[in-house]
Amino acid sequence: MFNFKVKEVLRAKRLNKNTYHLYVRWDEKPPVGTFFMVWLPGFEAIPLSVSGWYRGAVRFTIQVRGPTTKALFWATKVGLMGPLGREAPPPLGKPTLVAGGIGIAPLLYMYEEWGGTLLYGGRSAKDLIPVEGAIISTDDGSKGKKGTVLDLLEEVGAKRDIYACGPPAMLKALGQMSREKDLRGYGSTETMVKCGMGICGACAISKRLLCKEPWIPLREI
Ligand SMILES: Cc1cc2nc3c(=O)[nH]c(=O)nc-3n(C[C@H](O)[C@H](O)[C@H](O)COP(=O)(O)OP(=O)(O)OC[C@H]3O[C@@H](n4cnc5c(N)ncnc54)[C@H](O)[C@@H]3O)c2cc1C
Ligand code: FES
């Protein structure tokens, strides 16, 4: 059932204490907004968003949480199944990208492909990764504006072509804000992904299977 391709890890680059980029050989450009199931023998296969693609290498941006995300930093080969999900619907104009925490991963790819404005929020300066051109917020005010990334969104006043990725609480608040303020766009968040192929039902969220439809219209979240 699972069709993993064994691929060479080309480079791992540490970005902060808990986060790194992992570059894995992959020849075809993956669609923006998709993800792969990444399998390291001896560990569970885990879902990771495509955060970039460079001349034959797919990039993942990984936050260390548990055994698999820790071990992948040292991997020399991994099994990749994908790209999975669906391409994010492209923007009509310049998008506003709203990233909370490790939700920055798929938005980095959008930012590189589409441009626009990138709003990036974290708890504290030490939790952020360096992203050139991003407008920053931190909960404790240690970098950028003190507050949440949704405060930044209110400040820039974007109404259309909003793409957001972050923790479930952030997406829930943004869904509410979108209904109140008539905001249009798409959001994605984390759920448990097991099969990645629409079979097991583990990833159900907002009446959808996230592994098949990772980008949900904001007002339906
Ligand atoms: C579509 C999708 C894309 C993702 N993209 C990224 C990404 O680009 N970068 C990144 O750092 N993380 C991403 N994640 C989260 C990542 O999959 C988890 O951090 C990872 O599975 C943790 O595995 P672990 O063995 O290190 O930790 P564990 O100790 O196994 O788990 C730590 C926590 O991670 C979450 N988790 C564990 N297994 C899964 C799973 N199968 N599916 C979803 N969440 C899980 C749970 O909240 C759990 O409590 C994504 C998740 C989804 C659903
Ligand atoms: S992860 Fe199995 S249906 Fe989505």
From TrEMBL:
<keyword id="KW-0408">Iron</keyword>
<dbReference type="GO" id="GO:0006221">
    <property type="term" value="P:pyrimidine nucleotide biosynthetic process"/>
</dbReference>
<feature type="binding site">
    <location>
        <position position="211"/>
    </location>
    <ligand>
        <name>[2Fe-2S] cluster</name>
    </ligand>
</feature>
<dbReference type="InterPro" id="IPR012165">
    <property type="entry name" value="Cyt_c3_hydrogenase_gsu"/>
</dbReference>
<feature type="binding site">
    <location>
        <position position="200"/>
    </location>
    <ligand>
        <name>[2Fe-2S] cluster</name>
    </ligand>
</feature>
<dbReference type="GO" id="GO:0051537">
    <property type="term" value="F:2 iron, 2 sulfur cluster binding"/>
</dbReference>
<dbReference type="GO" id="GO:0046872">
    <property type="term" value="F:metal ion binding"/>
</dbReference>
<dbReference type="InterPro" id="IPR039261">
    <property type="entry name" value="FNR_nucleotide-bd"/>
</dbReference>
<keyword id="KW-0479">Metal-binding</keyword>
<dbReference type="GO" id="GO:0050660">
    <property type="term" value="F:flavin adenine dinucleotide binding"/>
</dbReference>
<keyword id="KW-0411">Iron-sulfur</keyword>
<protein>
    <recommendedName>
        <fullName>Dihydroorotate dehydrogenase electron transfer subunit</fullName>
    </recommendedName>
</protein>
<dbReference type="InterPro" id="IPR017938">
    <property type="entry name" value="Riboflavin_synthase-like_b-brl"/>
</dbReference>
<feature type="binding site">
    <location>
        <position position="195"/>
    </location>
    <ligand>
        <name>[2Fe-2S] cluster</name>
    </ligand>
</feature>
<dbReference type="InterPro" id="IPR050353">
    <property type="entry name" value="PyrK_electron_transfer"/>
</dbReference>
<keyword id="KW-0001">2Fe-2S</keyword>
<feature type="binding site">
    <location>
        <position position="203"/>
    </location>
    <ligand>
        <name>[2Fe-2S] cluster</name>
    </ligand>
</feature>
